Amino acid sequence: MTRESDVVRSLVEMADTLVDDYDVVDLLTRLADRCVGLLGVSAAGVMLASPAGGLGLVASSSEAMRLLELFELQAQEGPCLDAFRTGNRIEHEDLQAGSGRWPSFSAAALEAGFRSAIALPLRLRAVTLGALNLLSATSAPMDEADIIVARAFADLAALSIVQHRASTEAQRLNEQLSNALTSRIVIEQAKGVIAERAGVSLAEAFSRLRSYARNHNLRLTDVAQAAIVGTLDPLAWAPAPRPPTHRD
User: Fold this and answer.
1) What is the pLDDT of residue 248?
2) Other Cβ atoms within 10 Å of 43 Cβ, number
3) Global pTM?
């Protein structure tokens, strides 16, 4: 039961990491290392889709794997790319130089010491976020039990990516809301300053503040801040000039 215990412990440790302020690259690098340590493969790597839709290398278990995956991206052929494009598992493939479905990739992989490959998409429901690449120095296929564990790792990786993106978006939204609220406070203070100095209502003070910002192509918050600290052009307090009247 030692191996099963190691698998369960790895999954629990990775799941526990998700509740902290974690580094997704570090998490996926550890995932690649766990795949090598637990699944009998020689190397593992993770690619993720960029906002533009292309794949990029995020984590690898070794330098040889990193270079091979970069070659895969450059050549635009290989198991990871197929898993991402199709959203399906790429079954065990014996690599043969100059032949098969990835002739260029296979030649490079064999030169690096790898003989076989499988790949799993990182999916959350209908969305494919990336792919997990598993390479072996032997031609022996992975046991089905190992593939199930790899699938669990891939699912956990997909979950971590989604949570990380959601956390980043939530943080960005909170910052935007916080900035908006802070800006509103500054504007309210500026309205009071202009209303007092120009002897006008708060509504009129706000109107003059906005007009000055628009006419001078300035941010409203910056104009309001200048009013508070006393560096705003006094012309900003003046009423807007009336349009000329035309008589027949």
Assistant:
1) 42
2) 26
3) 0.64
